[in-house]
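SAMPLE LOG
Freezer: B-3
Tube label: C17
Construct: single chain, 299 aa
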Amino acid sequence: MKFNPVFLMIFGLYSCQQTPPADSPIRAEKVSLPVASKDNYWYQGKAEVNSYSVVQERYGEQREAGQVMVFVTEDFSANKQVKLDAEPAPGDVRVPVLKLNTIRRFKTGIYDYSLTQSVFTPVEAKDRRSLKLSATIQDWCGHVFVQCNAGPETYKVKSFSYFESEGDSETDVKPGLLEDEIWTRIRLNPESLASLKTTVLPAVFYCRFRHKPLQPEQADITIEKNAGESTLNLVYANIPRRLSIRFETEFPHRILGWEEIYEGKLMSKGTLKKTLMDEYWKHHDVASAPLRNELNPGF
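STRUCTURE (predicted):
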């Protein structure tokens, strides 16, 4: 009997896959190979780097801001929930994830803000939660840091703040979805979010800016699908907050912009300026400065 060599390669990859431990957040699912379209785009050995012009509300006034969103695939440890540097340790399992790093910067008078967030979503993410979320907000007063780690049923949320009223805390929450993972899920499979009623953990930046507790809220998600551009609308039932995200209808579903409304007022609005496919981690020398000029991040 003759076997197709491609079949043998795929079979070999699956047969070498380790069984996740009982307490792994992905214990009920296999890590599957990316489909052909994702193979062609997300597995080029490059990242998709996007710059956005942003309007950001802070202290009741609108500010000009710049934002960069970096989408890149990498191998992730299911147990340690960190990027793998080598082969998984015995009992661990390798999970291909789509990572999103978001960096936003803006000025408020004499001082400035720097916001950074990372989300790690398994590539085959139709029904799978993101494994990790971390975020920090820095300004001249101090900084806050939040990290959410997926467990078998809940997220462990750790929050550290220089505000006395918030302080350091650790809690378990069980949302159906993280608002901050909607961006990666759009890129992987926007249809999985269509006509969805679920509990959502609101965006970390929103919660920290408004000093709101990190707790799930009931929300509705709908998608208005059009030929070239579609819009995802997230509306909360019990908080006056709405998020609309514009994205390309066809793969790879680039994020074209967004609008965030709170209590009827604009909180943030972004518009795509430039997209680069680049091995940015290699371009840290002085000679690579023209790439930054081309990207024009706005900070």
